[in-house]
Amino acid sequence: MSKILVFGGTGYLGKHMVRASIMMGHPTYVYGRPINPNSHPSKLELHKEFKSMGVTLIQGELSEHEKLVSIIQQIDIVICVLGAPHIIEQLKIIDAMKIAGNVKRFIPSEFGVEDERVVALPPFQDYLDKRRKIRSASIASGIPYSFLSSTAFGAYFLNFLFHQHDQSQEFTIYGTGEAKVVFTHEQDIAIYAIKVANDPRTCNRTIFYRPSRSIASQLDLVAMWEKKTGRNYKKMYIPEEEIVKLSETSAHPHNVRAAIIHSIFVKGDMANFELREDDMEVSQLYPDFEYTTVDQLLDVFVTNAPKFEYAVL
Q: Which residues form the signal peptide (predicted)?
């Protein structure tokens, strides 16, 4: 089995990536910042969980070039799941992989909207431009890569849409509510990523998430929610113009959040383009995997909605 090194393994999506890697039988390594007894309790608990699973935990900084090279020389696959503030630091990882010279597959931090087919509002476009730099550096390095693209983090964004409505009879709808969104469960995003990383067919390709039963509009979600709860909700629409203005006038990170909302929920940038004949899609590549549908994800929020926290931008 290939040895997998995960950067950002204690983050929101990263922990799912690590669990999926272990579940699928891979020797798994996590490189992360040093922790101490004063670190956030959730990080400490995650470290305990990972150790009990057999994960090799390596503490260090991305600036420690020689250390990165020596660790990368011991593994086969590198997966980055770094948060938005650290996206550009993947250049340090690419430099280390070039020196190591042994990486069989590199998956950078992407997973969201497709960089090459989307133009977003400036606060979000700035982030996408950084991702494009990582793509270009990955290709130029000669390291075998796979880019995974075009999905919303299903539980996160459903939680974002629904958490504020627990005690309300009103739903906030961004734009017209008709744009389609791909809501892939985070666990499934990770499982698909591990499969892709080990698949010769996906080498040096962009792979899209577009499972048919993971796609829904905001209006679809409201209808499904009303059916599940037996309640009717008033819809409060926030027009596109207002969201654009928020992206222009709000302070960071609120301007970025407004631009992301515009891209995903108003323009429908996850699914507003046709896949090309030579594009690869995860549910077509791995038809035997039973992914979590939007309907199944909503069941979680009916019975046990988690507390919502914004991602760090």
A: none
Residue 97 exposure: Cα atoms within 13 Å on the Cβ side: 28
**How do beta strands 180-184 and 215-217 pair?**
antiparallel
Rg (alpha carbons) of the chain, rounded to whole number: 20
| Distances, alpha carbon 126 to alpha carbons 110, 123, 235, 251, in Å | 14, 6, 32, 15
Residue 78: which of 172, 14, 165 has the closest Cα? 14
In whole angstroms, what is the distance from residue 31 CA to residue 10 CA?
Answer: 9
Whole-angstrom Cα distance, residue 71 to residue 259? 38
Instruction: List, for residues 275-298, the tens digit of each pLDDT value.
Output: 988 899 999 999 999 999 999 999
CA–CA gap between residue 113 and residue 93 (Å, rounded): 22
Question: CA dihedral in degrees (76, 2, 291, 203; nearest 10)?
Answer: 50
Residues 216 and 294 sit within 8 Å (Cβ to Cβ): yes
What distance separates the 2 farthest-apart alpha carbons in the chain? 59
In this prediction the pTM is: 0.95
Burial of 205 (0-12, 13-18, 19+ CB in 10 A): middle
Cis, bond preceding 253 (omega within 30 deg of 0):
yes
Neighbours of 90 (CB within 10 A): 25
